Amino acid sequence: MQFFLQQCLIGLTNGALIALVALGYTMVYGIIGLINFAHGDLIMLGACLALSLVAVLGLGVADVGGMAAVGPAGTWLGIALLVGLCGLFCGGLNVAVDRLVYKPLRAAPKLAPLVSAIGVSFIFMNVGLFWLGPADRSFPELLPAANLLPDDGLQFTWKDLLVLVVVVPLMAALSLFVRSTRLGKAMRAVSQDPTAAALVGIDVDRVIAATFFIGGFLGGAASVIYGLYINTIGFQMGFQNGLYAFTAAVLGGIGSIPGAVVGGLVIGLMRSLSSAYVGERWTGAIVFAILIVILVFRPEGLLGRRTKEKV
Amino acid sequence: MRGFLRERWDLVALGVLALAPLVVPALGGALGGQVTTLFIYCILALGLNVMVGYTGLVHLGIAAFFGIGAYLMAILTVPMYPFQLGWLPAAVISVLAAAGIGLALGAPTLRLRGDYLAIVTLGFGEVVKVTLRNLEQITGGMKGLNPVPPPGAGVKLGTLDLGLAFAIDPRWFYYLALAALAGVVVAMRRLEHSRLGRAWVAVREDELAASSMGISATRVKLSAFAMSSAVAALAGCLYAGSLSTTADPNAYDFNRSIMVLCAVILGGLGSIPGTLLGVAILVGFDTVLAPWADSWIQQMNINPSGSSLLSFSGWRLAIFGAALVLVMRYRPEGLVPSRRLAAELHEVHP
Predict the structure, then answer these.
(1) Which H or E run contains B160?
(2) Please, which residues have CB within 8 angstroms of residue B99's CB and are 6 or more apart in sequence?
(3) Mutate to test the interface with A, among B119, B136, B252 (most CBs of A within 10 A)
(4) Taking CA atoms, what residue in A is nearest to B331?
(5) Which of A29, A112, A246 comes nearest B332 by C-beta?
(6) For B236-280, what is each residue's pLDDT tens digit?
(7) What single-letter DSSP state applies at residue B81?
């Protein structure tokens, strides 16, 4: 039982991370109907920047009892700075890519931006290859491995806490933003009907740019947490992580923000449970097999709206 | 002459490719193997084109069917298994089985919306790859299955041992793959203008209108799914045969699917010459241009320190990606678009 709970805990923490990435997919899809294949690789670039920044800021050097030389407060401040900077970087990059690559293709057939996104993902991967080199790099441990729970059977470390501390407020802020700000309202309008939104005076391009920025920002935050939590990054990490996150977005109902969160948590749970009970090497197959089965019975995803194919 | 070239490019290309091994001795060596692989990818891409090009269904897991073809071929022929069929019967069985698997995957999932179908095919591709990798007793795990005997093993034509000939001279396989490619091209042309082919396009253009004209969209889509899977499996059979092994499961992963999809879109959706050109460009870039440019850089001594920033293959992904982005920006209908799609994209709105 304890083992099961432990796996669930791991799964939920991983799932929160997946959900953060999935939000980037689902928001962009909700607004312009594009499967942004480059999102995973954007996050890889964020992780590259995070690794470089860790060195520049002097975090993680001269480990004393797990905490960096800058002390606990310094470490947490440093992590917050990392999240902010990498978020800005990924958000800005995402907006720039949208301007240069996807925007001219708004009227093109649907497959054109999809292929462009694949192209962008290759370019990002090449940049990552130059940045990190061909081998995987280890990301320094900045947080102590001490267990925060009194019970010895369950492990919940600072790293797990970090994931929640970053992910939960970001998601709360996002849902608040989408629900109750002007821009958020505009976003919902554009995702329902861009033409009608433009007719009532919404600057559609600005809303799309904002969406790309927010999706990218969340991805940048996810990249920092990924580095700190998984501790290994490499130029090919974008694909696998993007795949799980995208799957989560589809599972939850692509285009739906709460759906992405639920989908992420479900995928995280499925991953950790199948790794624990069936074997790590089957995880990919099991996750996707379950996904296919779920989609067969609920074609619109768990929380997606039932929509007819547009004619 | 130009008119002839434009109209009958296929015969000209076939003639040139058929005569090439007699004139270019290099085709009897490693180059012959590379060109054979190119033909095989062309077949694979034509199979994908049925689904993505004609029927308008995004398929992100075509490599899975490529792999299914290769592995079924291997299982039916390698000495490790009791079947040990000849190449041809094994190919027939593999192709039919792959079509069946395609139907089995398609039947429950075809009512999904476009992007959901894309993710199902992607997921199926991952499931197949992981399964191939992990079922070591059956698939040989990362080692793959070998040796796949050459086609015609044991068959003697007079004094010529056909199996031996295939094993020794890559030109035999070159011709086999070329013949298969020509056969697939002819079949695709006939299909394109058949009742079924027109139904595919009708469903792509407007599913609702097509169904109100009495076309069963589900059956039409299913047949496209089965046809794609079958042709991809044929490519897989040829692939396993030409390498005489299935290679490791990573040969059938998502990257392969994406490469083939990019080739089809780059060349022009629904266009046979476009698809062939797309494959030739993408595969040619990887196997011909990149190694050539690298050795040129080495010869010119531009990069004495061996930095990856100064080698051509270091930039391979970026060049490839930029090409995709630029083609989509300036020619979203592809390099050699099908007439119908081109007309549609350049429609003049009143």
Answers:
(1) strand B160-161
(2) B226, B227, B229, B230, B233
(3) B119
(4) A112
(5) A112
(6) 999 999 888 888 888 898 889 988 998 998 888 899 999 999 999
(7) S
